[in-house]
Design goal:
Layout lengths: L1 E6 L9 H12 L4 E9 L13 E8 L5 H14 L8 E6 L5 H10 L6 H11 L2 E4 L6 H12 L6 E4 L7 E6 H6 L4 E4 L9 E7 L3 E3 L2 E9 L2 E4 L4
Parallel strand pairs: 8-11, 9-12
Antiparallel strand pairs: 1-3, 1-4, 2-3, 2-6, 4-5, 7-9, 10-11, 11-12
Helix pairs in contact: 1-2, 3-5, 4-5
Length: about 230
């Protein structure tokens, strides 16, 4: 697996990092199989600048090590072409075997406390991970590598893209339709898996990343099953 982490690519007036990550994933899918794109929530604090929710995005590419250079070139070009004045984009790319415990620890710390660019660079250098600021203050490198650490756990965040989940727009969908779109499981918060029935989706189906799988959680509301959005 190759993880591609992006952060701080947007401003309040531009499209979000998640949208850019999905567009890049679409381009990369012509070169490699894309497992999905995940969103990871980072620490919210008054001293941390962010556009809306301080989240980062990670593209999961099922590709061999020799593909990393080409994927990097494509991703970097698209990010630079999309650069918005006022943003601080950062990019990190890592083979799964390069994601050390230090990278994971950095990601976990970034969810609960303030971490620095200096530490991000040190972690990347020590782990042999490509990390680069593509403009602005350079703060984007923090979320870029933090996202990779979190994505590698297979147990953090939610999917912005998994199969055809974006086609499951607002409305009622059968469980079989949801599973057929590439979501791995539909289950209640108590862990009961569902294989039939109808689920109401409020906006888009955004399954959670649980034990390496895309899991859409649901709960009963007013006599019907409603899909939940959970990190």
């Amino acid at each position: 697996m190759i993880y591609i982490g992006l952060d701080d690519t947007d401003t309040a007036e531009s499209r979000g990092t998640g949208r850019l990550a999905r567009d890049i994933a679409a381009a990369l899918s012509r070169k490699s199989m894309i497992f999905g794109v995940t969103r990871h929530q980072l620490f919210i604090h008054p001293s941390i600048p962010f556009t809306s929710h301080n989240s980062c995005a990670v593209i999961h590419a099922e590709a061999p090590a020799e593909a990393i250079s080409e994927l990097c070139q494509i991703t970097k070009k698209m990010m630079l072409d999309d650069f918005i004045v006022g943003s601080d984009p950062g990019l990190a790319i890592a083979l799964s075997e390069r994601v050390t415990t230090a990278v994971v620890s950095f990601g976990l710390d970034a969810k609960k406390t303030i971490v620095t660019k200096e530490r991000a660079k040190e972690v990347a250098d020590n782990s042999g991970i490509y990390l680069e600021s593509l403009g602005g203050t350079g703060d984007g490198i923090i979320g870029a590598i933090a996202g990779i650490g979190l994505a590698s756990l297979g147990n953090d965040g939610r999917f912005l893209l998994k199969g055809r989940n974006r086609e499951l727009a607002a409305g009622a969908h059968s469980v079989s339709e949801i599973l057929g779109a590439g979501i791995d499981a539909v289950q209640t918060l108590q862990g009961t898996p569902l294989e039939e029935g109808m689920v109401k989706i409020v906006k888009n189906a955004t399954p959670s990343f649980v034990e390496g799988k895309a899991v859409l959680y649901v709960e009963q509301r007013d006599g019907c099953l409603v899909a939940l959005k959970r990190n």
